[in-house]
Amino acid sequence: MVLLSALLVALGLSMDNLAVTVAAGCAAGGRIPLREELTAGLSFALAHLLMFSGGWGLGTGVGHFVHRYAPWVAFGILTCIGIHMVRATYKQTNPQYVSAGLHGKTLVWLALATSLDAWLVGMGLAFTSAPFTLTVLAMTVSVFVTSWVGFYFGAWLGEKFGRRMEALGGVILLGLGVKLLLEGLGIW
What we know:
Blueprint: H1 2-26, H2 34-58, H3 63-91, H4 104-125, H5 132-161, H6 164-184
């Protein structure tokens, strides 16, 4: 039962991550080099590992503050990146390798936005009998795999359907940002 609980937490934390990585992969407009996919996957996994561990370590000390603002932060980050992706679709006249979600600041912001919920889950699980090592290991592996698969699948979609997929990816990020905000406000 402990293993099942750890796997369910891992899969739950990976679903938003999968949606974001598919959307970012769509922006690439074509095949993403394996090294970049792996780097991005490791970045997302590391962000989740650090946020989950930080949340677990701090427990409820700052939980009310973080819990109150995390949905707004995730909404803001995903909305800005989503709008940028949609606008980039109309600004670029010829398709080229964009890889919007795989470099520098954008990669860091996407990893942060998708890992905020890991912070909150870590805080909540700190007061249960959930095993830290098993849970964090399952989550880290799950996030890495879903990131890699998400970027790969998104890049395939971008290559197959062209620039429209970048716009769709931006719309997906916007929708995910709204969903996270509504969940945080208790509406969804």
